Amino acid sequence: MNLSKKSLMLGALCAYASVTYAQTYKQGEVPIPTRWAKVVSPTNALKEYPRPQLVRTNWTNLNGLWSYAITAKDELPTAYSGSILVPYPIESALSGVKKNLQPNQSLWYKRAIVKPNLKAGERVILHFGAVDFEATVYLNGKEITKHQGGYTEFSVDVTDELKSGSNELGVKVWDPTNEGFGPSGKQVLHPENIYYTPSSGIWQTVWMEVVPADHVTSLKIKPDVDHSSVKITVNSNTNVSVSITGAGKTIKGKANSEISLPVTNAHLWSPDDPYLYNLTVKLGSDQIKSYFGMRKIEIKKDKDGIDKIFLNNKFTYNLGTLDQGFWPDGLYTAPTDEALKFDIQAIKAMGFNTIRKHIKVEPARWYYWTDKLGMLVWQDIVNPNQGLPAGAKEEFEKEAKATVVQLYNSPSIVTWVLFNERWGQYDQARLTTWLKQLDPSRIVNGHTGEYLYVNHQLRQPSEQPYINSDIADVHAYPNPMMPMKLPNKALVVGEFGGIGVPVEKHMWDEMKGGWGYDGTKGPLQMQVQYAEMADSLRQLEKLGLTGSIYTQPFDVETELNGLMTYDREIIKLPAAIIRNINSKVWPATKNWPTATKGFSATVADTSDHGYATKLKLYQAGSRDPQLLRELTLMAFNQNDGERAKQLAHEYLQSLKEPVSVTDLRFIFQFTLNSQGQGYPFLVAHVDQLLKVVDSTTVSRKFQKIVFDEMVQPVLTQSPDYEKIDQIIREHPEVSTGEFIIGLSVFKYLQAIAEHEQNALDNFMRFADIYDSRFPGLATYNDWAWAVFQNSDNQKYLEQALSWSKKSLQQSAEADKAGVMDTYANLLYKLGKKQEALEWEAKALAASNGNAEIKANYEKMQKGEKTW
Fold first, then answer.
1. What is the three-class DSSP state of 836?
2. Rounded to whole angstroms, how far apart are CA atoms 694 and 191?
3. Which of 107, 473, 561, 668 could form a disulfide with 448 if both were Cys (CB 3.0 to 4.6 A apart)?
4. What is the pLDDT of residue 814?
5. Domain carrying residue 664
6. pLDDT band at 7; cut points 50, 70, 90
7. Tell me: the pLDDT tens digits for 64-92?
8. Nearest partner of 278 among 235, 241, 230, judged by Cα
């Protein structure tokens, strides 16, 4: 469809779908909301000016209620579903929607905007803080810009498309999350373990501002401590004169050229004293308010010749913690600016002077608070898709560069972290040098955790460790270790710790509980272990260690490694105790917050809440629903199956409408068959259930029960697909039955391995049915290999070859060698020897000389069987 036709269709659609906008808003439920969630509303959604280092007065905040629709990826909406609160991601409770966006869907937004009153020559700029992942922006039905990259800001001049009065602003979003080619951080479609719920769509502030025809587009600020000056470039759409005022002086110069502003007797910025200079920039009638900090960061040798991190020409141990930036109610988006600030205050109150911002780029105001409050920041570049699909490398490098440019002016950022462990790592030598050239003023950690130890076991060796990096960095769980000593590199522990401490009533998922890297413990055990870790760090510091990053300040979903709970309500040890332990490694900053200065939290209860204690309450007659729920979970974990079954039954009987999020999740967890009250209860409440559990998980739960109880007996008797199809139609809760049919295919795949009669014929039939009904979803390589190993039937082998070809087209770079090996073996078995050899040679090259593939290749050359 060409642009003009598409624009006309969208314009007609906007007029058709709705002229008025729904104004209802209700937050979705979460098990543990933060204290700030209750103040979030359509009238105050992140109302602060979003860009503190380039402030203008004439602006309009576009956060608030927008209309939204979800469609198939390439379809236009025929109606809008209701309201969504921008800028909270659609999966979040604060959005008011709390729905998961799938890779084959598009998310549509729209709202009315009013053209500002403009003086002669003035322009209107529309800004987006961040939209994950691909955003197409429309104004009055016409596409005006498109942006890819879920973590970086973008803007567009909309002046010429605005009409007087009301206009319709629309945004189309596609976000494949971890199935795409762009960086997605720790968001995954099926969250578990160290990966979390996605944040799709608009997740940072949207706003408009009015600017003169000639105006500032951005600033580049480089403090030069050694020469008592700050270098400032005023980027603009014109090369006119500018004036800069800061540090008590006014200097004139030209736009788009570097201007040196003297800063005599500089008041240096540090975590102890985070002094910021105000800055005013004037270009014609455009006036900008900004700020800068005078600080210097480098690696240099101390008096003993050991390479260490120096801040403002003084050794400064970087005592840090690993901050993921997730929120139970807002996911990627903090509920309020006060909440954003609180996290930094909390970390500072615990005695840390450094935050490693892990696999996420925050809104500009987060960096404003680290600048203002005084916190060193190690900023991760968001990793590429770990499978490195086509386009992933190009997108990663584009977004890495945009991240450096976007965050360049923040004095708190002292280190760029290029790669984390082996997450999509490639071209490390080139990219480390490239990043240092992009920003020579900061330290570059080329590969944090290139060496990863868990319980002293090395997970991943490296041939050229930390090549071109300023830092040698080891990850060691749970206890810190000394990284390898390399010339001219500072030594740090990029991750360690992970002591898991569950806190009742403050867990993301009571049914699953949670985990820590070293199991789970109580607060008092944590205190002992944390103190021992600090003692180790102190000894390592004497040997040359210059920084360490503890995992982590806050729990995240089922990861219970936080010093505080996910809802920021409970601190697991008193802040003073954590701060005193940390001070054994490096003194706490002089300006740490207290309860009267922005930081407060309840200390975890250390009294007995064990199974035996609660069982006594139950046996004494208590039938409190919360007690029943907690006891059921404990009985289940204690393998007390019969009691768990009885308790769950009593709990279900105690429920009254409306049921809570916790109720639904609990029943979902403990409904294991269609008998009893659980299954029909879930079917009756499926709409509510889908708001708290993702649709794939819900559907698969229903399908597994139906498969085990109804489909499995049919398959055991005979491969009667028509009867299975009838069962699927009679149970609408299983939707298309994709998982049921997939399980049927898998059953026959297992039967082949067990040499059951007719297993191969039944497998081929059901695999063909599955592939025709659900194209592109099959595990084609597994299917093809099973046929290769177990059949000489020419027709079946040809079918397997076609599956293998599909797998070649779909597979990620990391999986290519095995898929090519399957394809080559099928060609060989079909008698196409020359073509088979060509593909096996490719497989061998892609596998870096895998012994099994090499043996197959040699057999093919000799004409021997490979099966």
1. helix
2. 10
3. 473
4. 61
5. 613-677
6. very low
7. 999 999 999 989 999 998 999 999 999 99
8. 230
Query: To the nearest 5 percent, what fractions of the chain are helix, strand and coil?
Result: 35, 25, 40
Q: Give yes or no: residues 377 and 506 share one domain.
A: yes
Q: What is the CA radius of gyration of the chain?
A: 30
Q: How far apart are the C-alpha atoms of 703 and 719, rounded to whole Å?
A: 18
3-state secondary structure of 163: coil
> What are the residues whose beta carbons fall under 8 Å from the beta carbon of 38, sequence distance 6 or more?
none
442 Cβ contact partners less than 8 Å away, ≥ 6 residues apart: 297, 413, 414, 415, 416
**Which residue, of 162, 186, 210, is where some domain finishes?**
210
Is 389 in the same domain as 486? Answer: yes
Residue pair 602/571 in contact (Cβ under 8 Å)? The answer is yes
Closest CA to 160 of 190, 192, 121, 199: 121
Could you tell me the two tokens for 170? 């629309």
Residue at which a domain ends, from 571, 603, 635: 603
Q: Report the domain count for the chain.
A: 5
Residue 448 sits in the same domain as residue 487: yes
Please choose, from the candidates 227, 281, 291, the residue with its C-alpha nearest in 3D space to the C-alpha of residue 255: 281
Could you give the strand order of the β-sheet that contains 354-357, starting from the edge strand earlier in sequence? 443-448, 413-420, 376-380, 354-357, 318-323, 545-551, 490-497, 471-477, 451-454, 457-458
Task: For 392-444, give the DSSP string.
Answer: HHHHHHHHHHHHHHHHTT-TTEEEEEEEETTSS---HHHHHHHHHHH-TTSEE
Q: Which residues pair with residue 320 across a beta bridge?
A: 354, 549
Token representation of residue 616: 């006594």
Q: Give me the amino acid identity at 27.
A: Q
Shared-domain flag, residues 370 and 353 = yes
Amino acid identity at 132: D
User: Is the pLDDT at 12 greater than 90, yes or no?
Assistant: no
